[in-house]
Each structure stands twice: as C-alpha cells, then as structure tokens.
Amino acid sequence: MTEKKAKQMAVLFFFVAGFLLTASALSVFLIDPFFHFHKPWFGLAAYQNDKEYQIPGVLDNLDYGSVLLGSSVVMSVDTGVLEARYASGTVKAVANTAPAPVLAEYLRRAFKSHDLDYVFYGMDVFSFYSDPDNEGTPSDVEYLENENPFDDVWYLWNGQILVEKIPNMLRMSNGAYTWGKAYSFNEGEPAGPDLVLARYEPTGLVEVEQEPWENASGLVMKNLNYLGEIIEAHPETEFIFFLPPYPIVYWDRAYNRGLLDSYEQTLRVCITELLKYGNAKVYATRFNEESLITDMYQYMDDIHGAAAVTDQLAWDIGDPSMEITMENCEEEIAKLDEILWRFKARVDAEGTGFMYEVKQ
Hints:
Layout: H1 3-31, H2 51-61, E1 66-70, H3 79-86, E2 90-94, H4 100-113, E3 118-122, H5 142-145, H6 153-156, H7 159-173, H8 193-196, H9 214-233, E4 238-242, H10 248-256, H11 260-274, E5 280-283, H12 290-293, H13 307-316, E6 323-324, H14 329-350
Parallel strand pairs: 1-2, 1-3, 3-4, 4-5
Antiparallel strand pairs: 5-6
Helix pairs in contact: 1-7, 2-4, 4-9, 9-11, 10-14
C-alpha cells in the first residue's frame, strides 16, 4: 500500500469513527431514555422502567406537581389514582429498600426544580435505621446524579442505551404505556400462603428478648431531623405520610429477631415528631386492619402486597377516616400489637395450616 493510500485509509477511518461516535451521542441526547438532559421530545412517552438510573432525570426534568416516595412496598401503587384524587401530576421516587437518607435526597432534588403540591411518603419503619452519613450514591449511577458534565460520556457512549433502552422507549411510546404504573411489578403475579410462608419460621409464643430502642434511636432521630428540615423549609407543600400494610408475618418475624419493640417505638416517635409540623399528616392505610394483614392470599411474600393491596392503597392514602393523630397514635399501634399476639397464639396452638383458609 502506498503512503498516499495509507493516509486516505486513515482519514476515512477517523471520519467514519467520528461520524459513528457523533451519531451515537446525538441519538442518546435526542431520545434521552433516562431523561438526563430533558423531558421526552418528539411526542415520546416518558417510559420508566429503570428506577435507579431514571429517577434523577425524572425529578429534574419531567413535568409533575407531586411525588410518591417509598420502598418496593409502594412501588406498584398507581399514581394515576393519586393524580385523579389530588389533581396533581405525580411521579415516583422509589427504591428497593428505600433508606430514609436516599428518599430525603430525592426530595431535595425534586424541590430544586419544582414547587410541589403534595409529597406522598410510604413510611417503612426499617428505612429510618440507615445512617445518612454513610448512605452514598452507587458508583454505577453516580454519573447521572452528579453535576459533572464530563461524566456524561458514560451515558452518551453507552452500548446498552443504544441497543436496548432507546428501542424500548420508542416501542413503548407506540403502545399503551401507563405512567401511573411506572416500576410496578405485582400486576398478574402469583400470591398466596405458599409464597408468604416460604421464609417464615414461626416461634409461636416463645419469649424472645427484644433489643432496646436506644440502639437505633440515634439514627432514627438523625433521619427524622433531616426530613423535618425539608418539611419546615416548604410550608406550602402538604406532606402525607402513610403506613403500608405489611402482612402479619412481617411483624412476627420482627419479634422473632428481637426487633418488634424497637420498631413499634420507632413508629411512635416518627408519628409524633412528624405531626409537630403543621403541613404534615400521617395515615394508617390499613397497616393494622386484621382482615387484610392476616389474609395470606393478599400477599406475594412476607412483605409485598399483591395488586389488590396496592390498588386499594392508592385510594387509602390521605383518607380522613384513617388519619393518625397525637390522640390516637398509641391506640393505632396497640391494635397492631393485639393482632400480632392473637396471630402468634393461634400459630402456637394450630401451626400454620389455618393460613390456607380462604377468608369470606
């Protein structure tokens, strides 16, 4: 090959490579399946199915007036119901275990770019045991959450984005995508006692030493103080906290692990501390309704409700008949305690077979 020919081939190579790199980056920027740069253009749907990667962009760039926060327990709630009830477009900011520090950071991010009408917050008692000083951003999504523009190269030139995420967004935009069902996972999925009891190890009425609340009180109060700062800084926003209805075996397992007393005290403290703010309310949302939480056919495992549970939850959030106040807080927690001890006594006497009975 002559020197001239070699130079021509080199120029062609760099031209083609440059063209492909530019086309790749431009495609990602224009379609932007993680909403990192902008909300969807060209009439595309805001298809949401990768929460860890999409939520920062959702909070920064989509149009909404309210946010639903929580763990996988509330992930399948249809925000379309909340939108209809409260007349405010609602997005989800959810995480699998939903540590309170992560949800607080989501809230701060939302308030940076939006004036919120409502914050709907599913209070998972365990989430307040996370240390806000040690809860860092996972390295694989940090480039989407920080403000360093040079990190965007990991997004603009990403093979998975090109061959999977962009085609999925284009395909779902031509179908019947439902915004309110973003990240949902329980629709049409099996439920029942076999699944709920798979990890259940009953002890009946065996006495288990309970850990003192003081072991966790420092973290709980730190998370509550950070959350309280956000509430206080936004008096125009109504904060609606609610207690998701876990199956009774969840609370039984907490007792068996020596955590029940601590969990119940955390509930008391969270409720009473949050109610000190004039723009915050707390709702029971059937967390202590015996007919629901003892019906194993309503659950997919030892914590997640089936579709009927989350469908009802969407209607219960903010229901005045379920409001918890300073006056009835202790009574509401005592109801749960009574249900648990009745349940444990029956397990002690009969085993687990009665959980297979279909409730009328």
